Amino acid sequence: MFLSSSSLPYSFYSLLIDDMSVVTDKYSHRPDNLVSDVYGVDFFVESLCNEASNVSALSLEPGSAYLLPSELFLKYFLGV
After folding, report:
1. What is the distance between the alpha carbons of residues 56 and 78, in angstroms, rounded to a whole number?
2. What is this structure's pTM?
3. Contact (Cβ atoms closer than 8 angstroms) between residue 19 and residue 49
4. Is 6 inside any structural domain?
């Protein structure tokens, strides 16, 4: 991914995933809206969620899975 927010391996993300969302038409190609509805508006949280889900805004299609990290994960790796 071009805008990597961390250098963590993908297997590590699965340890602290809080929730998984299935993308609907409302959030198609708009991960910023999905992240802002769950965590509030934050670019760094969005980029971390994109990296954990291994998707970009262009590849986020309806029916795909989108991973939402736990608050503990965000506090530790982003200092939120």
Report:
1. 19
2. 0.72
3. no
4. no
pLDDT, one tens digit per residue, over 5-44 is: 556 666 666 666 777 888 999 998 898 998 999 888 888 8
**What 3-state DSSP class applies to 2?**
coil
Q: What is the mean pLDDT of residues 45-69?
A: 85
DSSP 5: S
Q: How far apart are CA 62 and CA 51, in angstroms?
A: 18
Please state at what angle helix 43-53 crosses helix 31-39, rounded to 10 degrees.
110
Name the nearest CA neighbour of 35 among 56, 63, 76, 66: 66
3 within domain boundaries: no
Residue bearing tokens 């991914």: 1
- Specify the number of domains making up the chain: 1
Tokens at residue 50, please?
């994109």
Asked if the structure places residue 5 within a domain, the reply is no
